[in-house]
Structures
1.
Amino acid sequence: MNERIKTHVNSLFQGAPQTRKVLDLKEELLANLNSKYDDLIAGGFTPDDAYSTVIAGIGDISELVRQIQNESAFNSHYSTEDKKKSAVLTAIAVGLFILSPGAVIFFDSVLHLYNAGPIMMFVFIAVATGLLIYNGMTRPKYVKEDETIVEEFKQWKSESSEKKRLMKSISAVLWPLIVVIYLAFSFMFAAWAYSWIIFIIGVFIEGVIKLVFELKG
Amino acid sequence: MSITSDLLRGHTDTIILTHLLHRDSYGYEINKSIQEKTANRYELKEATLYSAFRRLEEAGMIASYWGDETTGARRRYYSVTALGRQVYKKNKLDWEETKEIIDQLLKEEEQ
């Protein structure tokens, strides 16, 4: 590793953001320049001549560094848009959950269709649940920028937290759903004496889902 | 060499693809082979070379990976993709056609 070449390359990258891609380009450039330098020395060049030949061969890399910079800026813009989409989906789902008992009141009291109310409520809940799960599943994964250990670690971390996130969103949907079913069932059939058993079933279902996730991981 | 360089620069991508057809390679090796093939008459600037790598990789014509050198610094290797091979074939045909046309057009007319 020639120190003069290293110093020169460092100066070329001065002020550039220390992103993975920029550091990779720097490492690639340095390795190739050093090979060239060694070849020139082996071919009978003096160290000074070899150094100036290597430096003269680089050309203007500022444009290249700028392009890589713009790329990273584009990537962060992309994720903001995804966040927005995710926020809208969550808001609609929560809205549907809140409105779902309203359906019962509306069909029962206003239209006097006694069976339509609970059915509409469950439709609302089903759509809202679907939205939440869709949202959890379609969050962008962390995409590897290249094959380095750091990137692999980031991806691994993102994948395991993605699983946790999905598990969380399932639990968040499961329990309100169970409460709604409990209330609806108990009111409709006056089954308060034994309908509480659904909570035990709920714990069981959650346990099974967790187990499935662990096995998959 | 400056006029010729301008003409050659338009073919940088194809020159790189050609070099990768038979084996994976890295920046300096590709440049060295260009120098050798042209008897030191042509050499790419590093800036030109890496811009071309980036462009080709973004277009899916080449892929890159880091080599596992046991001594010295890591090297970034490039390999040509199926798309890259197709583009190479097309560009080569285009060039042969262009060459013929230019040859015809630049020929001095016999009186």
2.
Amino acid sequence: MLMSLAGIIFGVGFFIVTQAQTSGFEQFFIRTILGTNGAIRIEDKIQDTIFAMAAAGHNAGESKFEVAADRTGRKYIEGVEDPKLIIDALRKFRNVSGVSTVVEGSVIADSSFKNDSAKVYGINLDDHLAVSDLASQVARGSGSIDDFRHTPQGVLMGRVLAERLQLEVGDSLILQAGTEQRRYRVSGIYSTGVSDIDRVRIYVHLGEARSLLRKTTGASFIQVALFDRDRAPQDARQMEQVLRHSAKSWQEREESWLEAFKALQVSAAITVSTIILISGLGMFNTLAMIVIEKTKEIAILRSMGYTRSDISRIFIWLGTIVLVIGTVGGWGLGAAVTYGVSKYPIKIRGIFSADSFQVSWNIWHYVIATITATVVVMIAAVIPARRAARLEPGDIIRGTSQ
Amino acid sequence: MATNRPEVALRCENLHRYLGEGEGRVHVLRGVSFEARRGNVTAIVGPSGCGKSTLLYLLGLLDQPDDGSIWISNELMSNSSDLDRTAARCEHIGFVFQFHFLMQEFSALDNVMMPMRKLGRLDEAQMEARARSLLADVGLGEKTHRLATQLSGGEQQRVAVARALANQPAIILADEPTGNLDVKNSALVFDLLTRLAKENGQAVVLVTHNPDIASRCDETKPMRDGEFC
């Protein structure tokens, strides 16, 4: 029984720890994506085709918004032609907390050491700070946002790109787009934590980007921040219908990553649940043995007037005691290991960049671990309990006496 | 209160019981009728396999007859539900078996309190006081907190007697209660059982092979081949 108890403690504990880690990295990813690319991105204008116009319009009784939700056969015109108009409309959405116009283009970044391909993001700093975590990302890197604010030729570079070009704050570099090339100074180096972003992105002032990329009007996209990030898919659908521009929520943009995280969480849960399952089997064996060993005691209790339910309850109680101690112990173990892991200094560099394990403290991890343990332990206890209750006292005592 | 109690604590009529299956099926009891009166000690004697214990388990509602009727304190119990028979055992019947069947992990006091806990008529303090009193009556007043494993065979059987008397049942059924004890302890346990039962006006029915014990009972019912002789 002690082994089963230990198994439940470890099973529940490890369940919590693995869920805390997998969802910790998922939350880290979501925070980073929201803090970098925003909750919704409004880009390419939807082209009115004959099919779309016919469908959108003009069948009696049909809303054109419903029809616009169908994306098949749709064509787009690249970019946002009139960002001011779109921004004015976006600000009317109650869930929108900020908008930022971005002009994007590919460049070659040339330091004195080497050159590398990169992407320039032209931004209005104050607008962009309202829709991203750029300030804290720079704080995690080096340099300062203020320096960028006051330096027209200043740039903010991703940590990975800066390392590849061997650039530091204050160094200069040349950005080349087509035949246009200009010299800039590194005002700050930011670190989002996601290497794919830190490897290519260079922020410059919007006016500079327009000049460098020769995009004097319009915008590549508009980044939108929301008060309630979970409503992004519904808001994006509405924006698309109203603004006639492609609007992608963060859930849609990062669907494959989010699904990968979900699969990892489920896989970890199943793997760790086997510990609980094996403990349950151990407990089932133990209780079944107790029923066999204690048949005389069960019979004498029945002869005293204890009912079948009373006998059954003894074994259910045994299971419940193991469950309660095991679960509470598992919570403690899970919480302690989760805390320990979150404080353990480890440099993670790759898809993610972090200096410790990312963990998420979520009551549901504890609830699901408890439900799993409860189901397993109760099944393990109920079967021997029913068997014990079915024993006939007369048969047992007669067998013992003979 | 004693005046309202029926004089006959236990009665059975025309009891039949078969044991085994198919060709091995044996007609163990062949129309047995019997009654036990309060304050009376009845011994059922007979050779092994004559049906003494089977009769005792039927009377104790631990088993059900294939035919016939059993009344406990004038209430017909032979065809009642498992729950009703269990409740009747708790309230009206105390058992003493050849083996003491004490719960080894519990003290003598706890063992005696077990039937009282199920009946639920007394509070915790009253149950403990009664258990102590019963253990004192059987000469174990100094060993109430000893585990069953820390008592000798005779002492364990005396605890079993105290346990059987715990709920003040109308009927005490004893199956070879002295079968595992030496002569001295046999006499001690028998004297205890009969004295306490008589003091409390309980009907005692005991199955025994011991002629000395049988001869000291108020009534002896010899049995052979599933019938009283």
